[in-house]
Amino acid sequence: MKQSIFFSLCLVPVCVLAAEPQPGSSATTSPHVMVRAAATQWGDAPAALPRGAQAAVLSGDPGKPGAFTIRLKAPAGYRVPRHWHPTDEQVTVIEGGLSLSMGDGSNAHAADFVAGDYVLLPAKMQHEATTRDGAILQINSTGPFEVNYINPADDPRKQAAAKAVEGKH
């Protein structure tokens, strides 16, 4: 009996050591990230969103597979026309207010959100976002980030391409 207790106690450190990721191993996860609100580096929002908003990548890379977190600063009157994403989108209102029209057909509903509120938009759920007075949103999702507009004419990438063609004539 004493031998089995001794043997079990000897295995505990071995199991703990085996479970710890080794330096340089693929078991290591995302890097440690800290972002102070005052130090946020804002830039233009992705081309898939209407002009006027600013974005900051907090962690991950929205253009690549994997988890990412971004902040979006939307000016007063900003609107993202009805669209959907191929992955879940988690939105937290950091400042201001956000109005969302979600779902389609008989599942359509709308809601207003204020600072501190959270909403999970499941993959492929149609939604439209607007802000009357401006907002800062935190968006957590899985990349690559894609925006699929219900009405292709609403897609700012296509609008920019059409203007570029017009400019050549």
From TrEMBL:
Gene3D superfamilies: Jelly Rolls. Residues 32-137 form the ChrR-like cupin domain. This is Anti-sigma factor ChrR (Cupin superfamily). Transmembrane segments: none annotated. The keyword Membrane does not apply. InterPro entries: ChrR-like_cupin_dom, RmlC-like_jellyroll, RmlC_Cupin_sf. Keywords: Signal. The keyword Transmembrane helix does not apply. Residues 1-18 form the signal peptide.
